[in-house]
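Minutes, project check-in

Agenda point 3 was the complex the collaborators sent over. CS summarized: two entities, 511 residues total, and the question is how they sit relative to each other. Sequences were read into the notes so everyone works from the same version.
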Amino acid sequence: MANYSTNEFKGGLKIMLDGEPCNILENEYVKPGKGQAFNRVKIRKLISGKVLEKTFRSGESVEGADVMDTELAYLYTDGEFYHFMNNDTFEQIAADEKAVGENVKWLVENDVCTITLWNGAPITVTPPNFVELEITETDPGLKGDTAGTGGKPATLSTGAVVRVPLFVQTGEVIRVDTRSGEYVSRVQK
Amino acid sequence: MQPWQPTTTHSTRVARANLLSTIRDFFDCKHVLEVETPILSVGTVTDEHLEAFETQFLFGSQGKPQSLYLQTSPEYAMKRLLCAQSGAIYQIGKAFRHEDAGRWHNPEFTMLEWYQPGYDHLALMQEVDELLQAVLGTEKGEWLTYQQAFIQHLALDPLTCSNEELNHKMQECRIDIDDVETLSIDSKLQLLFSYCIEPKIGNKTPCFIYHFPASQAALAKLSREDSRVAERFEVYFKGIELANGFHELSEPEEQRSRFEQDNKKRACAGLPTKPIDENFLAALDSGLPQCSGVAMGIDRLLMLKIDAKHIQDVINFPVSRA
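CS then shared the predicted structure for the full assembly.
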């Protein structure tokens, strides 16, 4: 993989740091009139998800990370791996539990997810921003309450638990924002 | 936007013209003479952290190609004028630094530089404040010594602290940089200053930081009262380093020795040494009147004036479109 000098730094560039692929979020050139030049960089570690700030001496080089995003449809899990398929080439790829992480609760069959590959292997799985899931269990709630104040917890078919308005019932399909884990609306079947 | 197009708006261009005219009026009223000096020079700065663009002149008097440098500031040439009894002078012109572009940086930029014979740095700081009030409509500036700024905001005395204390403070401030031990003390102080002090000073009114450590004297006299500090100041406003001024060093021997020290530092850092400006040193030999001088970034001043977020908003064709 190519090396990048600090003057090539910009948001979105993937570099290696402490043996982990990282995404540069922000890069600021710091140069006091009479002093040494630095690059102050905000970085997201792609495996741990940690965001940190690092300072480089301007002109320094760092190793690039072979990271790419690909759009793949979720197929199924065999209990150990999660299988995804490229809808154009039908090529399949398996992600482990670590790559899927918390997002396992948003995996819906045939939904197209963003799989981040590092050296060809999946490191993160990002579900679509919105998914539709069936409620498997929720308290019946009060009849006639349509104001939706307060809400109640509802368990979805994937095991995810979200707060829903009181009028939403077991068996209904709802739309959820996976970024915040919040209920958006009911879906007409 | 197409790459041929300017990155500025028409109203920004008008604001620049107005700004320049306010500055010229200010100096006209004070009977400071506008001058011009060459952008190309045989000698250049020796600072370890300042790189000049170098170009080749094929028609030199020696019959062989000669290196000429684009000025990083008009300082040496303007001091030659002062040695020739010019009296108070100012210049608005282009300066060049061979370094990266960024939010506050463009390798080619507009600089205002002026000199006041008979002034010490404190008197000039007063005048800089007056100019800022005239141009930006700011209130009277706040003054802090370099030492006070560190003690107030970091509880660290920059003049007496040990290297270990500095490393510890860097860690405490979460400044994460590899091989911190290879950084000079001044670089560590500058990082702490930019990351932890700059955001806290000069947010309402311009902040004048003065009496820099002697190791960062550049071309300033050392203080007679406290030789640990130099009579150098900088002006910060809303997170921008806006100006740098000196009570000017006038002793030619001391000046030559600082240039030589700089070149030694460059050699140690594996950088090419730079030709010392002998015309400038010869002028100092003939006598530089006691004076203070300051350089101010006009593009940054305009950014503040119109509240621009990036320097390319105030430069018609930044280096990416040069």
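Noted in discussion: The radius of gyration of chain A is 22 Å.
Follow-up: revisit at the next meeting once the mutant set is ready.
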